[in-house]
Structure formats: C-alpha cells, structure tokens
Specification:
Aminopeptidase, alpha/beta
Length: 342
Amino acid sequence: MIFSLLGKRVEARALGAPSLPSAAADFRGKGGIAKLSIFLVALLITPITAQAQHPSAGSGQAFDGAKAYEYAREFAAIGPRWPTGPGHVKAEDFLRSHFQRNHDQLEQDAFTADTPIGSVPMCNFIVRFSGTKPGAIVLATHYETNYPLRNINFVGANDGASTTGLLMAIADRLRAEAAVSPGKKLSGYSVWLVFFDGEEAIRQWSASDSTYGSRHLAAKWGRDGTLGQIKAFLLADMIGDKDLDIQRDTNSTAWLVSLVAEAAKKFGYQRYFFQQEMDVQDDHLAFVERGVPSIDIIDLDYGPNNSYHHTAQDTMDKISAHSLTIDGDVFLETIRLIDQRN
C-alpha cells in the first residue's frame, strides 16, 4: 500500500510484515526530524519462540518488568517535570532519595543551561556500579518533561517515566549481582546509569535548544578524559509503549545495533526490534560525535498515527510491564555480549 503524508510517499510492507506508522514520513521524533524508510526484511516474520531464554546476569531470572512499571508509575505520579517547575524539583528528590537510600554510588551533576528563556538550572544523575574490568558501559535515559507542554498536564509516562523506571529496575539487578560477587563488583565492565535532564526543547527543537544534559555531560567527560573509559553508550527512550516497535536509528554504531539484535533474537523478541529505520536526533548524538560507540533504542510510533506522543494522552495505561520486560532482558543481555566482545 502506498500513502502520502506531509508531501512524502511511504510504502507499507506486505501482508505479514509489521505495520508502518501512518506518521511515517517527516515527523518530530525526539524533536528532531525522523526520516523513516522501510527496512528490508522478509515478508513473513519468524515465529516467536514459545519459551524465551533469560539473561544470565544477576539472579538468572527474567527481568522484573513489573517492578520497572511500578517505578515508572510512581515517577509519573509526580506529574509534569518541566525544568523550573515544582514537579522537576520533586523528580530530582525522587531520584536522589531512591539511590541514596540504596547506598549506591550517586553523582549529582548540576549545571546551568543557556536556553531561550534564559539560564535554567538542571541536574543529571549518574549511578555507578563498579566492575572487575577497566572501562564502563553507560545506560541512559532522560527524566524531565516537555517545557512547552507545561500547561496540559503532560506527565510523560512513556516519554521519560517508563525508561526512568526501566533503569531503576536494572539498578536493582546490578545491585543484587554486585552484592554476591567477589569484592562487591560486577563481573565485567562497570555499568553507569545516567538520568539526563533537559533532553526536550525549551522552545523549539534545534541543535542548541535540546539535549542540554547530554551535551553538557559529553563535553565534561571529554575534557576530563572520562569518555575514553566508555566501551558503549546505550540510550533508552520511549520504549514502555504497549505496542512496542523499536526502530533502527541510522546514527547508531553498527556493531552495537548488531549486538542488540543478537540479544533480542536470543529471547525470540525479533518482531519488536529494527523492522524500520530512522535518522533520530536524541541524547546519544553528543556521544556519537565524540567517537563513543552509541545506540539509541527508541520507539517513535506511539499510539494511532503517533497520536500519543507529546500529548496529555501519554499516560500509564499506554505502557506495559511486558514491554519493559522485553527492554530489560535485551539491555542486560547486551551488557553481557559487550563484556564478551572486548
């Protein structure tokens, strides 16, 4: 089927292939222009295996997507978290108190962003789990909500809260693994969890009005030499969606895309990954531009015709523990594969 949107022509896949979002031509993904093309795959998708395998990291059990969902629910319940707003202060307190309560190695990276509305205080949060090998794998998300949507009760259940909950539940697994390991360290590279502030535009998405937290941290780590320690940077964004459909970002590092695809295949999750490709502007670009192997794991097809994205309909009933289980399984397996690779 051929249809037209915003002056573009897009060809949908044949029967048996994943459906193409009708917002598939030029649309704002994470504020940037997402240029969608059909990713060439077979007409029939290999059936999902009846019994999925699960990560060997930590307890060896399936990732607890229900716990990730509960964390996301608690975080979204704060309400809108736009910079300079009262909900943003509550969001910072939520993250700070959670990781301090668990006695994790927490760094608060406070900075001031130069924005179209003037100087805005922001804060990234970095949680480190030490490993036995030199080097680190970074898992990242953003946690704030969109400033221009501050008056519509936009809580960003998928866009910000779902992946914040995902990383918090991953932290539980890493903490449990370290607790029973020699020297209280992970077996392999260190894993750093980063919660970025200021991913969303303050006025309108542009290179200078977006991704404030990631641009700040990448520059800071470039100056002090930290970037040289990073073996891989994995960004999670908008992947709590019940109808999970993670696109392949063309800016992402090829070998990392292949490793994530391998991890997904292990569990029979291929149908949820990389059936389409896009050029996505997001928090990973500041690291890509500095030569850090990076991937954006993102689902930009959210609701019918992408109708939930950046609207008050981005609520907890649109995301699921099942999708977060898929995400967590694949992230943990990808960590294992990166450890094996290097």
